Amino acid sequence: NAGVTQTPKFRVLKTGQSMTLLCAQDMNHEYMYWYRQDPGMGLRLIHYSVGEGTTAKGEVPDGYNVSRLKKQNFLLGLESAAPSQTSVYFCASSYDSDPYNEQFFGPGTRLTVL
Amino acid sequence: GDSVTQMEGPVTLSEEAFLTINCTYTATGYPSLFWYVQYPGEGLQLLLKATKADDKGSNKGFEATYRKETTSFHLEKGSVQVSDSAVYFCALRTISSYGKLTFGQGTILTVHP
Question: Over pLDDT 90: what percentage of chain A?
Answer without folding.
Answer: 87
